[in-house]
């Protein structure tokens, strides 16, 4: 795993949810219009297993 250092104002934990051919992460409405960075911190789980 790589290490990244990011300066910012707030951090939230979330899970990327499937949307169409991609995924999204919800952030608070007050973040609308702000620049954000998303960092993947785990390997994605394969939905097709099982």
Secondary-structure map:
Layout: E1 17-19, E2 22-24
Antiparallel strand pairs: 1-2
Low-confidence region ranges: none
Indicate the overall shape.
flat
- Intertermini distance: 27 Å
Q: What is the CA-atom radius of gyration, in angstroms?
A: 13 Å
In terms of DSSP E residues, the strand content is: 5-15%
Count of beta strands:
2
Helical region count?
0
Helix content: under 10%
Describe, in plain words, how this protein is organized in 3D.
The protein has 50 residues and is mainly β. It has strands spanning 17-19, 22-24. A two-stranded antiparallel ribbon has the order 1-2. A hairpin with a 2-residue loop joins β1 (17-19) and β2. It is flat and about 30 Å long. The two termini are 27 Å apart. The mean pLDDT is 88.
Summarize the entry for a quick read.
This protein has 50 residues and is an all-beta fold. The chain has strands at residues 17-19, 22-24.
């Amino acid at each position: 795993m790589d290490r990244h250092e990011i300066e910012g104002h707030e951090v939230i934990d979330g899970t990327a949810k499937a949307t169409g051919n991609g995924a999204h992460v919800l952030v608070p409405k007050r973040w609308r219009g702000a620049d954000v960075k998303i960092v993947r911190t785990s390997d994605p789980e394969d939905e097709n297993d099982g």
